[in-house]
Amino acid sequence: xxxVLQLEHIQKYxxxxxxxxxxxxxxxxxxxxxxxxxxxxxxxxxxTTLLNCISxxxxxxxxxxxxxxxxxxxxxxKEIARFRRNNxxxxxxxxxxxxxxxxxxxxxxxxxxxxxxxxxxxxxVREIARRLNIEEILDRYPWQVSGGQKQRCxxxxxxxxxxxxxxxxxxxxxxxxxxxxxxxxxxxxMNEQLGATILMVTHDAFSASYAKRILFLRDGEIFTEIRxxxxxxxxxxxxxxxxxxxxxxxxxxxx
Length: 255
Prior knowledge:
Elements: E1 3-16, E2 19-32, E3 36-40, H1 47-54, E4 62-67, E5 70-71, H2 80-87, E6 88-91, H3 103-113, H4 118-131, H5 147-159, E7 165-169, H6 177-194, E8 198-201, H7 205-208, E9 213-218, E10 221-227, H8 233-247
Parallel strand pairs: 3-8, 3-9, 6-7, 7-8
Antiparallel strand pairs: 1-2, 1-4, 4-5, 9-10
Helix pairs in contact: 3-4, 3-5, 5-6
Domain ABC transporter: 5-244
Keywords: ATP-binding, Nucleotide-binding, Transport
Family: Belongs to the ABC transporter superfamily.
């Protein structure tokens, strides 16, 4: 399987002189095309810093990040916005939909900015909306649709540009259990049915159980990794809890 993302000995330090915080000490891993990787760890473990470095929001102090063979750490500042738009999809905790745009226009935003021809934009938006079951609300505005439909709109926007990698940062953090299940089901469907490559940061064992494998971070380093393989989600969930217990943390999530 082709590797989409490669991290080689990533380090990230903050501060200077005698007051240096080592957010990421030495992390290496890769993500294959079509993978669904979860990143777990307690607050301060480095998981959000890691996501920010991959997404070019922050820059590494040392090491290399490659996305589809391109070294992310060497992209010039004026090219970063275009790089993100062409290569990355984002699923935000609060969805970040624009209320002044229709659902269709929200989904199409990245395509429009990239100057994709309008007839192609319409076709791609309708196709992804059909696959995520929101085709009937494309002409409505975000305030006119349900929370679950907003979630699917956010997912459609993340995947419509065929990004090489989708990044989800605590996507269920502000949701109730029912909405969380719906969103995680949609994200999992994007991975299974659309072949999307996904990296999801979460502190929640229930959310993590939807992934195919999980890296656990502690103090800026990889503590361990587990893979779901052919196990059921319930069995994988229990294995996640076992690792969290071993790390000194737990979860109140219930399947």
